[in-house]
Amino acid sequence: MKLNRLKVFVLLAGLSLSTLVTAEEMFMTRTQQTFPEAMLALQAEIKSHGYKLSRVQRVDIGLTKSGYKTDKYRVVFFGKPDEIKWIADTYPEWIPYLPLKIAIFSEAQDTLLIASDPEKIFLTDDPKLKKVLARWKKDIGSLLNKMAELKE
Amino acid sequence: MRLIALFCLLLAVNGHSLASSLGESLYQKNCIACHGADGKGGVGVPLALDSFQAQASDRFLRNTIKFGREGRVMPAFKSLSEDELNALVGYIRTFSSATPPTYSQKPIKGDAKLGAQLYAKNCAACHGAEGLGGKGTGVTFSRPRDLPIIAPALNNAGFLKSASDAMIQKTLQQGRKGTPMVSFLKHGMSKQDINDIVAYIRSFEKNQQRNEIAKDEPYYLEAESSMNLEETVASLKQAIVGKNYRLIRTQNFDNGLVKETQEDKKKVVVYFCNFKLLNEALTVDPRVGLFLPCRLTVVEHKGKVKIMAINPLHLSRFFNNDELNNLCKGMRETYEVIMEEATL
Questions:
Q1: Are both B230 and B278 inside the same structural domain?
Q2: Do residue B22 and residue B167 come from a single domain?
Q3: Does B294 touch chain A (CB under 8 A)?
Q4: Which CATH class is domain A17-143?
Q5: Pick from B77, B144, B290: CB nearest A69
Q6: The model's pTM
């Protein structure tokens, strides 16, 4: 496909990307809670870690309405308003990846939670942004750990 | 003397339980999300079945963990030490009472050409053409699928490095009770037929097919519009519908994060979806929620109006799923076509 008016920006900020997927490329957590319990717990954990929940996308509803079978599947969007605003204004190229999200879906009696690693997605040399990303990573890891520890 | 023996015994018992608690915690940290608490499977295949454990040698398990399955979701756990690998294997063994086998590493002689024909007839329906694996992976309890367990890729360096010819031979002879994988001895094949197929599977080593993502994939996609923000949003919506996607929601970027009156009206998100494609993507990888819903964002920044998108390939490189990479290539093209049409 020939793109004339479309400029695709290649940001090669000199950051090396490994193509080999090793274990810790993304967050993946299983909790023994059923979906409704896990969903409530997740929202509470997001809040208690100081983030604001902005929206929940009900993926399963759209699928079911279109005639496809699926168990519960949601995407939860969240962030800290001042941080999101700062990044969106300073580095608009990262807007499409914001706010943060966690996919949550049921798997039989359990619930799975998936999140990207912010340090792997948002590549930057800015120490200020790096600090934010490191904290996001720590917070996502911590809230997902809390979810993993929940019992039935 | 007795005392020393007792001491040694205690040490051995202690060493064993230490290893198993290390194994358990490693399993919970690294494997439970995909293979389930009791090894019944999920995004990953089951590990607890007696039929599997009676065919999987410790060497096979150790190597599978170390090398993973490139492009087939199962990660490579390269940083685990030998002790940690052994502890994990010990823990996986607690799922079943089957006796672990050991295998000769000697190659098995067979006619790979004949094997290829037998494979196309008897195996490809589940394991994919040229051994690339079934559509999707593991067990997945969350949606209906073709098979209760999706057949693993056999044309896969991680599999080929882990499984000896003798193990593959035994798998074909016995099948795996409790899975769709049947015994081909019982299904009319001769021992020689099976050896021919083993030779064919081994020949994949010289014919590895990967669908990797280029190192220099852009992180995001962007197109400049000569219209103002409102016109660009309207034109974008038209282009989306024209490509057979359903608009699901238009909102300001910071909607839900700040008070409605304080929302930034210069950043508008258009969400859309094609449920048929979405259903297909979820079959290939249930983790695709991180790409959802499809979204293009119109941003006015420093007097310029732009349409922006994630590059799905930048996200999918962390999923270790070649099939997903394929879908993401298509998705990237769709984003580009829509952006191009909307800014014409």
A1: yes
A2: yes
A3: no
A4: alpha beta
A5: B144
A6: 0.91
